[in-house]
């Protein structure tokens, strides 16, 4: 309850950042620029972690 469950300062959240307003045009939901998962911010175009520490995305098992 102290880390998740509602939107409050200091709690963790999974978030997507969209370039546009989906209320005006639902197709903008295809324009995801960033994703935040478990307090880590990722660049949606390449999967690199941007925060809290910048890291390049490693290869998936099928890319090797």
Notable traits:
single chain; 64 residues; 4-stranded antiparallel β-sheet; flat
Question: What would a concise description of this structure say?
Answer:
This protein is mostly beta strands and 64 residues long. The protein contains no helices and four strands.
Describe this structure in words.
The chain is mainly β and 64 residues long. It is 0% helix and 27% strand. Strands 1-2-3-4 form a 4-stranded antiparallel sheet, with no helix packed on it.
Pattern of helices and strands: EEEE
Beta-strand proportion: 25-35%
Q: Which residues sit in consecutive blocks of at least 5 with pLDDT less than 50?
A: none
Biggest β-sheet description: 4 strands, antiparallel
Spatial order of the strands forming the largest sheet = 1-2-3-4
Shape assignment: flat
Give average pLDDT, whole number: 90
What's the tally of helices?
Answer: 0
Question: Oligomerization state of this entry?
Answer: single chain
Structural class: mainly beta
Q: What is the number of beta strands? A: 4
Query: Which radius of gyration do the C-alpha atoms yield?
Result: 14 Å
Question: What is the first-to-last residue Cα distance?
Answer: 40 Å
Helix content class: under 10%
List the helices and strands and how they pair.
Elements: E1 15-18, E2 32-37, E3 40-43, E4 49-51
Antiparallel strand pairs: 1-2, 2-3, 3-4
């Amino acid at each position: 309850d102290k880390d998740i469950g509602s939107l409050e300062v200091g709690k963790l959240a999974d978030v997507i950042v969209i370039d546009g307003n989906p209320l005006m045009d639902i197709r903008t939901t295809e324009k995801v620029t960033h994703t935040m998962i478990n307090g880590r911010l990722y660049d949606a175009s390449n999967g690199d972690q941007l925060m809290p520490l910048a890291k390049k995305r490693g290869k998936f098992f099928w890319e090797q």
